[in-house]
């Protein structure tokens, strides 16, 4: 069982940034409005994520660490959203099998918080306001071979920041604060979508991009597409979300790329942040443990609509 969970963990937890992604995901699922990410040594030494969400009832704390234990499937109706959101109850179990972990949580109305140490199973009273803190320390401490594959702290930190950025772009209604080695490195306050884009990607991005909006039946594409002059040599400013989840999808990327085919040449990469809203039964997000890939039922239509939406946005600037 230990081995099985370590193998499963290998698929979910690749580096500190994967932990950050999963824990922030959980905080958002719990309805957090403020999320703090505290890192030590690029997240390798410690990742502590604190939220002001609903909290975990004390009797459910041990359950949260079990494989396939999720509080997010309550009814048969929910199975639909399970298929689309990829809720699988794997993350905490996986992380706790490759790192030291503690859960600290307090629900509304509880007299105090409780802290559960994952390794010893010890449950003790603790202090904190409503919400949850998850502490992850010494990632891959028991698998030195995996730990050896980690890059420098600076590189791991950059990956962690990118994981937070991906969430932050999609959730301007949530405040994010990131600390590294006890120093504040980033703070994004609750803001409008446009302000959040500017805070996260820089005010220049707003100036050199155009609004995208297209709606056809249950399919909606919106966001911002960078003008040709905003193109970069690396594909590092390309954000696509499907129903609020960050994805990397070849079909969508190709749709966007083809909108730029007459204006971008060589290896220059367009910059964009696109949100695609689609009926949940038209998309399958549960195809990969990292939940980063999707499969569409009507790929051609989506490709075309994405392409036209971006083309229209870019044409605005030529008039
Ligand atoms: P999943 O998110 O797929 O349900 P996880 O392993 O990520 O699985 O989390 C297991 C369970 O732990 C969740 O279903 C939820 O009940 C609880 N949980 C984890 N993190 C939090 C959090 N920050 N706030 C409230 N509950 C949480
Ligand atoms: Mg989760």
Automatic annotation (TrEMBL):
What is this protein called in UniProt? DNA mismatch repair protein MutL
Which section of the whole protein is represented?
30 to 348 of 649
Show where the DNA mismatch repair protein S5 domain sits. 197-315
* Known function: This protein is involved in the repair of mismatches in DNA. It is required for dam-dependent methyl-directed DNA mismatch repair. May act as a 'molecular matchmaker', a protein that promotes the formation of a stable complex between two or more DNA-binding proteins in an ATP-dependent manner without itself being part of a final effector complex.
Q: According to the lineage, what is the superkingdom?
A: Bacteria
The Swiss-Prot or TrEMBL record describes its family as follows:
Belongs to the DNA mismatch repair MutL/HexB family.
The residues the entry assigns to the signal sequence are none
């Amino acid at each position: 069982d230990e081995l099985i969970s370590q193998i499963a963990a290998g698929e979910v937890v690749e580096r500190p940034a994967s932990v950050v992604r999963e824990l922030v995901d959980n905080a958002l699922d719990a309805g957090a409005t403020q999320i703090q990410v505290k890192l030590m040594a690029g997240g390798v030494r410690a990742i502590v994520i604190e939220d002001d969400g609903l909290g975990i009832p004390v009797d459910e704390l041990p359950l949260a660490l079990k494989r396939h234990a999720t509080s997010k499937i309550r009814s048969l109706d929910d199975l639909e959203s399970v298929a689309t959101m990829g809720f699988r109850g794997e993350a905490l179990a996986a992380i706790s099998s490759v790192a030291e972990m503690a859960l600290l949580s307090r629900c509304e109305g509880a007299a105090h918080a409780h802290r559960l140490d994952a390794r010893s199973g010890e449950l003790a009273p603790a202090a904190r306001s409503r919400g949850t803190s998850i502490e992850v320390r010494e990632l891959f401490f028991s698998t030195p071979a995996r730990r050896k594959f980690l890059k420098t702290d600076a590189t791991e930190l950059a990956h962690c920041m990118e994981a937070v950025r991906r969430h932050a772009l999609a959730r301007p209604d949530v405040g994010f604060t990131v600390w590294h080695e006890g120093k504040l490195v980033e703070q994004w306050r609750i803001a409008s979508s446009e302000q959040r884009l500017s805070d996260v990607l820089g005010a220049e991005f707003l100036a050199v991009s155009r609004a995208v909006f297209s709606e056809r039946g249950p399919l909606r594409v919106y966001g911002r597409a960078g003008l040709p002059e905003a193109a970069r040599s690396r594909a590092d400013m390309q954000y696509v979300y499907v129903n609020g989840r960050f994805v990397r999808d070849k079909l969508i990327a190709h749709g966007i790329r083809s909108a730029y085919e007459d204006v971008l040449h060589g290896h220059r990469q367009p910059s964009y942040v696109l949100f695609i809203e689609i009926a949940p039964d038209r998309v399958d997000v549960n195809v990969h443990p990292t939940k980063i890939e999707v499969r569409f039922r009507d790929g051609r239509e989506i490709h075309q609509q994405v392409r036209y939406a971006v083309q229209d946005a870019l044409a605005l600037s030529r008039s």
